[in-house]
Design goal:
Elements (H helix, E strand, L loop, with lengths): L51 H13 L21 H7 L2 H4 L11 H18 L3 E3 L5 H18 L7 E5 L5 H8 L3 E5 L9 H7 L4 E7 L11 H10 L3 E6 L11 H4 L3 E4 L1 H4 L14 E3 L11 E5 L2 E5 L16 H13 L2 H21 L16 E3 L11 H10 L6 E2 L9 E3 L7 H20 L1 H5 L12 H6 L6
Parallel strand pairs: 2-3, 2-4, 4-5, 5-6
Antiparallel strand pairs: 1-7, 6-7, 8-9, 10-12, 11-12
Helix pairs in contact: 2-11, 4-11, 5-6, 12-14
Length: 482
């Protein structure tokens, strides 16, 4: 019997001298006909020599080594990696949208402006807020936009003493960073034993220097701030604004309106909750909504409807100015528009309810192996931890690596920081029960391996193109050409 070739036995070098994919006719003119000799190569570039078939197979096989939402379950907590319909990609790439010149006159892009206007109106409807800007290009950019809007609001009131932003330890990590970028001093407060804002700590931190209180709702341990109205009253009584990080809005969509909580400013992540692809660095979109008393300070222009036409309103004397060239990431906005047009209010509510149900299903199924750090019903994601006395030294990072061998992308790990050995799992509403059961089975199998053969988990992954790497070395000296 011939020996079966293993992947490691196959040569990585595919180039063969003289092999080529496409033959071109001899050029009519030599290169020096077009360029001076000093700009020409003195030696032929060293390029791979492959047939077209070899090239296609090479890149196709590389793509199969990637994890992506189209091929694997992506339980990344706080990222909302849900399936996004391909039809929206097609619609957002229609030539009238993609070929429009950024400086085209308003009368030539009425269709695009109508989409943006209608999207603004729908976002106002689902949040209860008075106005939205679509300029911010990401969630963190939305946070910066919101804080600078708050600064413009207080500057207009000549309230210069408000220099602090209060951020709980259950907020997204971008919140304190963004506050610093906006020129504020960050006051961190700890959560209570239930994982929600400690109201006593908040009250002690509130003062005449407080400009904004930034809350992530639901927060990063997957819990809804049950005392949100009381919190809003305390914030407003102190003369400050309540900012809601709405990146986790997938859990509230169609269920609750932040304006009813007393929220003054918030951003939404269209690239998480509203059907634009998430990950890979973008493009994103983080529209910012504002209550009526803060709305005049949003970036300009806003899209408005006037006399049957759609216009860009530049006449906003209190506006903080522009936050992005032109009008935002249009293609992402179009995807979100398609998403919201496809579903009615009842369906949007069902989407949120399914996301919450899926997260709680995973939490309850794994309660014996990986208990939730806060033992309470969660929202869109559950944050689990380890039974250290049962893991034989196996840590969260080991579990994440071993999950790859079982065909699952790893969840977010070691975040939020207040949860030791955190496993942050967000199934989203698009995963079915069968997939969740397989995921639960994989984690239970890894738990059993930790008890009987922990070295297998310590050394994972075993069946990936790359095994366990030196993560410190990879961070300091990344090899981007492997």
């Amino acid at each position: 019997m011939p020996e079966i070739l293993q992947p490691a036995m196959l040569s990585l070098e595919k180039s063969v001298p003289g092999r080529r994919g496409v033959r071109f006719e001899k050029p009519q003119y030599t290169p020096d006909h077009y360029l001076p000799a000093k700009y020409l190569r003195s030696h032929t570039p060293r390029l791979p020599q492959l047939s077209e078939l070899d090239t296609v197979r090479h890149f196709t096989n590389l793509s199969r080594k990637n994890y992506c939402l189209d091929s694997h379950f992506y339980p990344l907590g706080s990222c909302t990696m849900k399936y996004n319909p391909k039809a929206y990609d097609v619609l957002s790439n229609l030539p009238p949208l993609t070929a429009a010149h950024p400086f085209a006159p308003q009368q030539a892009v009425q269709g695009t402006l109508e989409i943006l206007y209608r999207l603004q109106e729908m976002l106002k409807e689902i949040t209860g807020l008075s106005a939205f800007t679509l300029q911010p290009a990401a969630g963190a950019h939305g946070e910066l936009t919101g804080l600078l809007t708050a600064r413009a609001y207080f500057d207009h009131r000549k309230d210069k003493k408000r220099t602090e932003v209060i951020v709980p330890d259950t907020a997204h990590g971008t919140n304190p960073a963004t506050s610093h970028m906006a020129g504020y001093q960050v006051i961190n407060i700890k959560s209570g034993p239930d994982g929600c804002v400690d109201k006593a700590a908040l009250q002690n931190a509130l003062s005449e220097r407080t400009a904004v209180v930034m809350l992530t709702v639901p927060n990063t341990v997957g819990l809804f701030e049950k005392d949100i109205r009381d919190i809003a009253e305390r914030v407003h009584k102190a003369g400050a604004l309540l900012y809601m990080d709405g990146a986790n809005f997938n859990a509230l969509l169609g269920v609750a309106k932040p304006a009813d909580f007393g929220v003054d400013l918030m951003h939404l992540n269209l690239h998480k909750s509203f059907a634009a692809p998430h990950g890979g660095g973008g493009p994103g979109s983080g529209p910012v909504g504002a209550a009526a008393h803060v709305a005049p300070f949003l970036p300009k222009p806003l899209v408005e409807q006037k006399n049957g036409k759609y216009i860009l309103n530049e006449k906003m004397p209190k506006s903080l100015g522009k936050m992005k060239a032109f009008f935002g990431n249009i293609s992402v906005c179009v995807r979100a528009y398609c998403y919201l047009r496809q579903f009615d209010g009842k369906t949007l509510k069902n989407i949120a309810e399914q996301a919450v149900l899926n997260a709680n299903y995973v939490r309850v199924c794994l309660k014996d192996e990986f208990p939730a750090f806060f033992d309470a019903p969660c929202m869109h994601e559950c944050v689990l931890t380890l039974h250290k006395d049962k893991m034989n030294g196996v840590r969260t990072a080991d579990i994440a690596k071993r999950l790859l061998d079982y065909g699952f992308y790893a969840p977010t790990i070691y975040f939020p920081l207040i949860v030791p050995e955190a496993l942050m799992i967000e199934p989203t509403e698009t995963e079915n029960k069968e997939m969740l059961d397989l995921f639960v089975q994989a984690l239970r199998a890894i738990f059993a391996e930790a008890a009987t053969q922990p070295q297998t988990v310590h050394e994972a992954p075993h069946h990936q193109p790359v095994g366990r790497i030196d993560e410190v070395g990879a961070a300091r000296e990344p090899n981007l050409r492997w």
